[in-house]
Amino acid sequence: MASVVLLSVKQTAQTKAKRCLGTRLRGLAGADVASVTLLSGKEWLSRGWSLRFMSHGTAGRSGAGATRRGALAFSGAAAVTAAAVVGLLANANHFQRAEMATRILQNAKKKKEEKEEEGSIAERCRGFMSAPVTDISVLEKRKDEMSTKMEMLIMETQAEFCKALEAVDGGKFKVDKWERKEGGGGISCVMQDGKVFEKAGVNVSVVFGYLTEEAAKQMRSRGKVLKGKDGKLPFCAMGVSSVIHPKNPHIPTVHFNYRYFEIEEEDGSKQWWFGGGTDLTPVYIDKEDAFLFHNTLKEACDKHHPKYYADFKKWCDRYFYVRHRGETRGIGGIFFDDLDSPNQEEVFNFVKSCARTVVPCYLPIVKKHLNDSFTPEEKDWQQVRRGRYVEFNLVYDRGVKFGLATPGSRIESILMSLPLTARWEYMHEPAKGSREAEMLEVLRNPKEWA
């Protein structure tokens, strides 16, 4: 009888603990996004509502043992209640607390995002780096059109990333809004000679008009057969792109780009497609950084299709390949182009998930290496690697080619991706067994990180 009473008391306590946990976590939904490390370990997550058990240095391991060794990283608006959450989680077993907390936090995040997107266009624009390219009144009238949804997404992505970088660097972005006489314009945000970043650029462009024959040929080479009226192809193109060149050689360069194209053919029908991706270019290999970066992207991809990450990771390795050097530009990420199925809304939601990873997949890496010391030799190696970056952008990059072939393009914004400084050494080859040689080995033989 005593054992039955004790079991009943234990079950009642667990039930109360679960109820209390649910109440406390639901109360977090309205607070600002923050990042908290509840147990020892590096800050792996910097945005969103998620609960993950990660084992540092055990990428790819599974099972309860690896999970128990991991750090409990809790990201979201929980800064002021972190200790209380830890105590509550301790009262449930491992799998129960992970399942309960994850479900509650994911629902809270979804409701928060839905609430943000239900707000008026004008309200959402207040948080941008600048007024959008398209007039707010026009966006309000066509708020259900894909061009409006995409313009709002790229403006939000620009603002979120710029503000995160400013918080780390302490500097401010110069906001340069420009117009294109042929139609549309853009907002270029650039920070130069900062404390952390030698050059950081985050561009938004929304352009429309008519495609030139040269630009149309580039699209046809990617499988798009386009038929214009009287030799003209009305188009609309928009996107957000960023390249960050840090001063410290132990902080990687990062690039992302997410874009939308719409073409009207001679019969009045429209072709549309999305493209983009995020990739990392370190100067030295750090396996923890690679694991964080790739797994954050994989999580975003897995929400939409189980093959997206694997397919787009391979595509990224193929695309960012400096053929005349026989090496990739960096350690990759994801890349996709001409994505137009299964339907417009589903592809847009996928692009939105990817765009929302740019802060959590990069800022923790920046913060981790902020105070790393480096030698003059390491700085020289960074300059050599930047030279390879320039070679790819000027010789192979489709975005640069498309921009240069589009009438009225803004050269300063197109070439924003180039670093302030770089170096080209004749017949440079690192010493065998060095960390520089290790980096080259990875670039010549891409690895699986997730």
Automatic annotation (TrEMBL):
Coiled-coil regions, chain positions: 98-156
Membrane-traversing stretches: 71-90
Protein keywords: Coiled coil, Heme biosynthesis, Membrane, Oxidoreductase, Porphyrin biosynthesis, Transmembrane, Transmembrane helix
Pathway the protein acts in: Porphyrin-containing compound metabolism; protoporphyrin-IX biosynthesis; protoporphyrinogen-IX from coproporphyrinogen-III (O2 route): step 1/1
This enzyme's EC code(s): 1.3.3.3
GO cellular component: cytoplasm
GO biological process: protoporphyrinogen IX biosynthetic process
Signal peptide: none
PROSITE patterns hit by this protein: COPROGEN_OXIDASE
Oligomer and partners: Homodimer.
Identification of the protein by name: Oxygen-dependent coproporphyrinogen-III oxidase, mitochondrial
